[in-house]
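Attaching the record inline, Q. Sequence:
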Amino acid sequence: MANIQLQVMAKKGHLFIISGPSGTGKSTIVRAILERRPQLGYSISFTTRPPRGDEEDGADYYFISEESFRKKIDANELAEWAEVHGHLYGTSARYIEETLGGGQDVLLDIDVEGTKRLSNRYPEAISVFISPPTMTELEKRINRRGTDSAEIIARRLKSAEVEMAQIHCYDHVIVNDDLAEALLKLETIIEKVCPNG
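Structure, as predicted:
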């Protein structure tokens, strides 16, 4: 009986890293998978950028000042951080350590650079790249959002090309041509790793 309890206590959670260019629909996929699998922990990133559309503080991101963000860097509170399109983004090290240590699986939605850093820190992490069907389709999706200037859209598309070149670094690639199909593929990946979770 004591051995069984020790085995249960020693079970560590799995870390799933979801990444891909802006506009591929990864946030939509992540929200949908969390609704289907509420037992998954979700690490909400810190960012210095302002909220977009109906984004909420504490639900989509923790929106903080650059000064507060820099303090987190100095205090070594971030598992990874990066500057993307002129704004800072980072992942809480404490949240990941405590949640995985407690045996709960964790899902992260972060950029390609963040994925590299976290994969080095957590080599057992499962990385999934969400890809657009084509760059033309990606441009249409970003334009449809109506939240960015032409200059920012051009920057996002240039970043997307750089990110797409890193696709070979991921454990899995899902082309988001059809949302329901992409969601099913991600669920299948998670199910293989966590059949009862």
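The longest strand covers residues 78-84. Helices lie at 2-10, 26-36, 66-74, 93-101, 112-121, 135-145, 150-164, 179-193.

More tomorrow.
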